From TrEMBL:
The protein's name in its UniProt record: CYRIA/CYRIB Rac1 binding domain-containing protein
Keyword Hydrolase: no
Cellular component GO terms held in the UniProt record: membrane
PANTHER family for the chain: GH09096P
Record localization: Membrane
Organism: Bracon brevicornis
Family from the record: Belongs to the CYRI family.
Record lineage: Eukaryota, Metazoa, Ecdysozoa, Arthropoda, Hexapoda
Keywords, alphabetical: Lipoprotein, Membrane
Domain of life: Eukaryota
């Protein structure tokens, strides 16, 4: 687990925020986005890591992925990713 490397809760939250920010940034700057199958971003792993956290820590970050990404709702986004992020 990525977060097990860090003892302080503040550091764990910081890592989650940075991870989400980088997914959003990559999705905006890459022509096909972060969600396509050939992407170098493990979006599924990121979302699963967020969903393993208590809702008070993760819900805002999941909403950031849902509502601020550029390519999530495109037809070439795999259905399993869309389903993972479905509210």
């Amino acid at each position: 687990n990525l977060l097990a490397q860090f003892q302080r809760e503040e550091t764990q939250l910081f890592v989650l925020r940075v991870m989400v920010g980088l997914v959003i940034l990559y999705d905006h700057v890459h022509p096909q986005g972060a969600f396509v199958k050939g992407s170098n971003v493990d979006v599924k792993g990121c979302v699963k890591l967020l969903k393993d956290q208590p809702p008070c820590k993760s819900e805002g970050l999941l909403n950031a992925l849902r509502y601020t990404t550029k390519h999530l709702n495109e037809e070439n986004t795999p259905k399993n990713i869309k389903n993972l992020l479905a509210a």
